[in-house]
């Protein structure tokens, strides 16, 4: 069993920045994909950014140029640096890890005020 714990959410004004961090309970080297998803009120959960084991990174179009995903194998963390935040970025952000099975964290709330 793998635990994923997110941190770093909070309230920020539009144009501000936040850094989310996801800590895994085991080495992240074995994961095929690690990423961040978000779910806004009344909407479906969507992929925000992901890193595939070979190094490929994917972003949803709406965050390209503003968000950066990174991983640290020594700390077993995957971070999401979010800059130039917009009210439409308000959502619960979830960490995701896959290597056959799929694991989710419990989420961290990001609220961007206008």
Shape designation: globular
Q: Helices and strands, in N-to-C order?
A: EEEEEEEEEEE
Distance between the termini: 40 Å
Rg is: 13 Å
Count of DSSP-assigned helices = 0
Task: Give the number of DSSP strands.
Answer: 11
Tell me what portion of residues adopts beta-strand conformation.
over 45%
Low-confidence parts, pLDDT < 50 over ≥5 residues? none
Give the helix/strand class: mainly beta
Look at the structure and give the mean pLDDT: 96
For the largest beta-sheet, the strand count, sense and barrel status come to: 7 strands, mixed
Give the helix proportion (percent range): under 10%
In short:
By secondary structure, this protein is mainly β. Helix content is 0%, strand content 55%.
Give a quick set of tags describing it.
55% strand, single chain, mainly beta, 4-stranded antiparallel beta sheet, 114 residues
